[in-house]
Amino acid sequence: MRWPGKPQVPGLPPGRVPQGAGAGGRGPRQGGHHRRVALLRRVGAGLGVGLGVGVGAGAAGIAWFYSSVLLDTSIRPVYPERVLDVADGSVTLAATALTAQPGTWGLRWATDRASGLAVVGPVARRRPDQVVRPLLGGQAPVPGAAAVLDAGPFDPDPGARDLPFENVDVPGPLGPCPAWLVPADGDTWVVMVHGRGSSRREALRILPTLHERRHPQLVVTYRNDEGAPASPDGHYHLGDTEWEDVEAAVRFAVARGARRIVLFGWSMGGAITGAFLDRSAEAGRVAAVVWDAPLVDWRATLRLQARNRRLPTVLSPLATAVTSRRIGIDFDRFDLRRHPPAVRPPTLVVHSTGDTAVPVTASRALAAAAPSLGWPMRYVEVPEAEHTASWNADPAAYERMITSFLADALEAGRGGR
């Protein structure tokens, strides 16, 4: 999931051309960051006026703005970091909380004339204002380039992981949704669902591990993704309608020979697949679920995001109410601890303590409640790493965790309600 308004959240594919959705279709949106800053200033000015003529009107204006940010489907390149030097097989970056993140990352960089994606390893040296990381592959950045650490170090498709794949179209309810099909000779398919504002690239990190287990993998898109149909109103629906596209993907997999399904979701992919488990007639086919930094409580997530933007906490319920009115979502259904899905297969939840986008506390609370909900759940907490960056922090450990869980959940024949 990418959250606008923050400098950068891992998982964003900055190279993607910004796209916007409207009632009449999709089209480019240029200068989005600056337009949003200008809008925020106007909202701030409006709040100042509102304080003079009525606090309620100003608060409503901010709530509407926050709701608009939440529902915005456009993707904008963001490069908040700076490459200071490239020498001796390493790159020196200006020190920030993100450039000092542990583990293996992609480093997207751009100048006026060129751009690229490098792979950088764990921090080798750190000074008060600089971070030095080894270059492990990809395109070496240019000194002076703007850059961003990207949780996805691989690009652009499963071929980057030396895996054969097929581009397929899943017939969704709004139209065809492009997907990658990575074949294997097993009959338990993994349907992979990325987070809000991210892309299929999110799945590239784990594909080889699942391929070794002989799982065919279907890496899907859903409405408002690049190449997929736009939603009729041009907004994200935060899982409340996107689950129907996952249902179409599961039916596609079954038509291709899948006997059992594993759902693998990142960030808002957790909310989408959670809604699928609650509402889809196909949910009984799911034998196991893997959630990475899942969004299991929208209200808790919106409170965290309000704090990130230094908004008064009282505005979060108002923004939630505005959003509910605009897209018809019932946020109670997306608090999975209080309203668990109808179908609850064995589930692995992985969340990191350094997540500034989706609160780790919501995953902790769900895991603590799982036994009383009759929900077989394994919970693993990863220290320090940012949002959806548990793989990056320690790829080998993450892959062992996935393999161990699936061996227990699938090979022991567990699953069901």
Q: Assign the CATH architecture of the largest domain.
A: 3-Layer(aba) Sandwich
Q: Characterize the main sheet.
A: 8 strands, mixed
Instruction: Enumerate the spans where pLDDT stays under 50 for 5 or more consecutive residues.
Output: 3-54
What gross morphology would you assign? globular
Oligomerization category of the chains in this entry: single chain
CATH superfamily of the largest domain: Alpha/Beta hydrolase fold, catalytic domain
Q: List the domain count as a whole number.
A: 2
**Percent of residues in beta strands?**
15-25%
Can you give a write-up of this model?
- By secondary structure, the chain is of the alpha/beta class.
- The chain folds into two domains: 81-150, Thrombin, subunit H; 158-297 and 329-411, 3-Layer(aba) Sandwich (Rossmann fold).
- 30% of the residues lie in helices and 23% in strands.
- It contains ten helices and 17 strands.
- The protein has helices at residues 32-53, 55-71, 207-212, 243-255, 268-279, 298-308, 315-327, 360-369, 390-393, 395-411, and strands at residues 20-22, 25-27, 81-87, 90-94, 105-110, 115-120, 125-127, 130-138, 146-150, 166-172, 175-182, 188-193, 217-219, 260-266, 286-292, 347-352, 377-382.
- Strands 10-11-13-12-14-15-16-17 form an eight-stranded mixed beta sheet, sandwiched between helices. The protein has a six-stranded antiparallel beta barrel with strand order 3-4-8-6-5-9. A two-stranded antiparallel ribbon has the order 1-2.
- Helix 2 (55-71) crosses helix 7.
- The longest helix has 22 residues, at 32-53.
- The two termini are 28 Å apart.
- Residues 3-54 have low confidence and may be disordered.
